């Protein structure tokens, strides 16, 4: 389809530049740009590696001369939104990517926005110039999708957490990304009806407050992470069905349980549109080993500062979820107390099996461990506090610090890590300042005088520099005109 | 100038150069008859780094990958075998080849020049390695987003002006 269109193009543009046909084509281009953008974003969050082949001859589906495969499910969802509306001035199309843990916690990781502003470029040729730039924009998007933190999380998703997406029109609520979110400008394409912009904003604080702190020791929290899916699934399932404004397709964590989990309700997102999980293309057990999964979950639970984006995170909701789990599923294990806080023996065996082969993961892991060690037993306190609670250390240290800590961390002090971290982060002092410190006040003054003299000299000669720049700019404009 | 470990050299350079090449690669052109042509399709592959926490995208062309690896491998060997402070740079240049009148050889006009300067460090323990692994990954992420979201639709005049100023280090 597109292939023949390409062949037609060059002759058509000569006859009727800026014609009605151009306008129609531009709309079509924007539509496919939106569709392909959604494919690129969602496919990069499936947790798989992409591999598409180059083709010397394009076929109908190879829009923008880029081999972006269409995932049927994603395409169907995208078309629902694209068929009625396209991104126009003032109305952006957003793709929101969020994370949900097995416990039912969720948070928005990033929002990609395809929008348009009113800067029109009437000279931009729809055929080829705009089309090719859209291709470039998609290439930028492909590269950028691998850069944000959500990409790494998506690659690690498994039974502990899954990545979801949602498409909607309107303004993105960036405050949902927590404090210190960052923005990216992927690129823009000027067209005769406005400039298409593609931007993204992403969360930098990847943490979910622990809502079970009031019920359990940190040990039990850890324990739960090590559990294999059946027990936790009932809990998650309950949490899903306990609230429910919105239909949700949840992750299929294993083949056997997928039937039970296909649809259930959630209250996590605004009710205006459907939230669909990035489809898992394989339902096999996750390739990452458990300790790595634990690592990622730990990391997401690191700081207790960021809020859960939506689920009612009260201890009550969890317990009510438990009750419902018994009715909803026919799980092998009844959702009893052991469901949430399993006994020590399976945990110990898992620990022995996995932890010795795991290298110290990274700095943030250490921080994560410390944070989980430090979780106060009180739920309310846990939302804001990072202070250590040394009374809890003995139990958790055995599990967390001994097995996974970096070689030079000490066994029992909470401050060591902080000290070490500061040491690593602090830049080495400049030699000049070193000298100043050594020789105390007088050289310091001398140094300052010298510096101010120098600054003064430069300021005096500022006009020389200005003239020089001006002359260069004149040169530039001459040479360009 | 970025400090990297010896074993990271290849991946640092590959990830930056491959991203650039992917971004600047077009599909194969087929001229049909006068004034008409069709363009082929560019496929791509996600490539995970072994020694850096980073994934980059490259064109799905093994020939391109091998050509790049050959050059970078030579660069790495040169860097690792040299004496004294291990610092080096490698450049990727996009240029236009312009035919000139006989007997002069064809002229090469550089369009873009990308240079990576590396400082090779030796790390003593796994913890430092892990930090380095993450940090280099972060820096590569910044570089990639810088590369791919450059000024859009820059006119030739603006590009030339920028080139002129860059050359004079203004």
Summarize the structure.
Chain A: Residues 296-339, 353-392 are annotated as: Disordered. With 481 residues, chain A is an alpha+beta fold.
Secondary-structure map:
The complex is a heterodimer of chains A (481) and B (170).
Chain A: H1 2-15, H2 20-44, H3 72-82, E1 93-101, E2 106-117, H4 126-145, H5 149-156, E3 161-169, E4 182-191, E5 194-202, H6 218-226, H7 229-242, E6 246-249, H8 258-261, E7 263-266, E8 275-277, H9 290-300, H10 315-328, H11 337-340, H12 344-354, H13 363-373, H14 379-382, H15 393-399, H16 401-404, H17 415-425, H18 431-439, H19 441-460, H20 462-480
Parallel strand pairs in A: 6-8
Antiparallel strand pairs in A: 1-2, 1-3, 2-5, 3-8, 4-5, 6-7
Helix pairs in contact in A: 2-3, 2-4, 7-10, 9-13
Chain B: E1 2-5, H1 9-24, E2 29-33, E3 36-39, E4 44-48, E5 55-59, H2 62-81, E6 87-98, E7 107-121, H3 126-148, H4 156-167
Helix pairs in contact in B: 1-2, 1-3
Structure characterization notes:
- The complex is a heterodimer of chains A (481) and B (170).
- Chain A has 481 residues and is an alpha+beta fold.
- Chain A is built from 20 helices and 8 strands.
- Chain A has an 8-stranded mixed beta sheet.
- In chain A, α2 (20-44) packs across α3, α2 packs parallel to α4 (126-145) and α9 crosses α13.
- In chain A, 40% of the residues are buried.
- Chain B is α+β, with helices and mostly antiparallel strands.
- Chain B is built from 4 helices and 7 strands, in the order βαββββαββαα.
- Chain B has helices spanning 9-24, 62-81, 126-148, 156-167; strands at residues 2-5, 29-33, 36-39, 44-48, 55-59, 87-98, 107-121.
- Chain B has a 3-stranded mixed beta sheet with strand order 1-7-6. In chain B, strands 2-3 form a two-stranded antiparallel sheet. Chain B has a two-stranded antiparallel sheet with strand order 4-5.
- At the A-B interface, α1, α4, α5, β4 and α20 of A face α1, β3, β4, β5 and α3 of B.
């Amino acid at each position: 389809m597109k292939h023949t269109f390409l062949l037609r193009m060059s002759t058509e543009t000569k006859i009727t530049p800026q014609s009605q046909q151009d306008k129609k084509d531009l709309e079509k281009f924007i539509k496919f740009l939106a569709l392909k953008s959604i494919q690129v974003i969602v496919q990069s969050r499936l947790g798989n590696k992409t591999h598409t082949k180059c083709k010397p001859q394009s076929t109908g589906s190879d829009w923008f001369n880029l081999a972006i495969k269409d995932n049927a499910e994603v395409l169907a969802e995208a078309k629902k939104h694209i068929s009625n509306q396209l991104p126009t001035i003032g109305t952006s199309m957003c793709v929101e990517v969020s994370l949900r843990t097995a416990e039912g916690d969720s948070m928005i990781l990033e929002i990609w926005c395809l929008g348009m502003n009113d800067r029109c470029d009437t000279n931009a040729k729809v055929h080829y110039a705009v089309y090719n730039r859209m291709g470039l924009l998609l290439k930028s998007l492909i590269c950028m999708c691998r850069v944000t933190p959500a990409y790494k999380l998506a690659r690690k998703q498994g039974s502990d957490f899954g990545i979801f997406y949602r498409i909607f029109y309107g303004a993105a609520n960036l405050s949902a990304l927590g404090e210190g979110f960052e923005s990216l400008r992927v690129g823009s394409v000027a067209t005769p009806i406005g400039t298409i912009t593609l931007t993204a904003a992403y969360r930098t604080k990847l943490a979910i407050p622990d809502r079970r702190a009031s019920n359990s020791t940190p040990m039990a929290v850890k324990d739960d992470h090590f559990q294999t899916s059946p027990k936790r699934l009932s809990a998650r399932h309950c949490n899903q069905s306990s609230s429910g404004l919105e239909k949700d397709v949840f992750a299929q964590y294993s083949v056997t349980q997928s039937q039970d989990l296909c649809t259930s309700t959630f209250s996590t997102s605004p009710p205006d549109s459907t939230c669909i999980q990035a489809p898992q293309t394989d339902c096999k057990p996750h390739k990452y080993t458990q300790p790595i999964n634990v690592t990622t979950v730990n990391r997401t639970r690191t700081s207790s500062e960021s809020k859960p984006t939506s689920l009612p995170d009260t201890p009550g909701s969890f317990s009510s979820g438990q009750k419902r789990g018994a009715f909803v599923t026919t799980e092998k294990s009844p959702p009893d107390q052991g469901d949430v806080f399993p006994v020590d023996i399976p945990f110990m065996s898992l620990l022995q099996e996995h932890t010795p082969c795991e290298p110290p993961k990274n700095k943030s892991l250490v921080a994560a461990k410390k944070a989980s060690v430090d979780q106060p037993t009180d739920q309310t306190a846990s939302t804001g506090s990072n202070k250590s609670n040394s009374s809890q250390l003995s139990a958790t240290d055995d599990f967390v610090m001994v097995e996974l800590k970096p070689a030079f961390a000490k066994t029992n002090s909470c401050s060591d890590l902080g000290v070490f971290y500061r040491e690593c982060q602090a830049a080495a002092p400049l030699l000049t300042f070193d000298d100043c410190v050594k020789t105390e006040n007088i050289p310091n003054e001398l140094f300052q005088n010298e510096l101010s003299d120098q600054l003064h000299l430069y300021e005096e000669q500022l006009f020389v520099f200005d003239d020089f720049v001006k002359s260069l700019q004149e040169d530039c404009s001459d040479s360009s005109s | 100038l970025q400090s990297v470990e010896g074993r990271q050299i290849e991946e640092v350079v590959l990830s930056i150069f491959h991203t650039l090449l992917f971004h600047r690669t077009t599909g194969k052109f087929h001229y049909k008859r006068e004034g008409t042509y069709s363009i082929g399709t560019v496929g791509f592959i996600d490539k995970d780094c072994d020694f850096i926490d980073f994934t980059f995208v490259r064109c799905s062309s093994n020939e391109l990958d091998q050509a790049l690896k050959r050059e970078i491998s030579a660069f790495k060997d040169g860097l690792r075998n040299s004496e004294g402070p291990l610092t080096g740079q490698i450049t990727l240049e996009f240029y236009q080849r312009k035919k000139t009148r006989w007997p002069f050889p064809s002229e090469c006009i550089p369009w873009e020049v990308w240079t990576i300067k590396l400082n090779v460090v030796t790390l003593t323990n796994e913890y430092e390695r892990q930090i380095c692994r993450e940090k280099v990954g972060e820096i590569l992420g910044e570089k990639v987003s810088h590369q791919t979201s450059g000024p859009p639709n820059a006119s030739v005049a603006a590009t030339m002006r920028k080139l002129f100023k860059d050359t004079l280090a203004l």
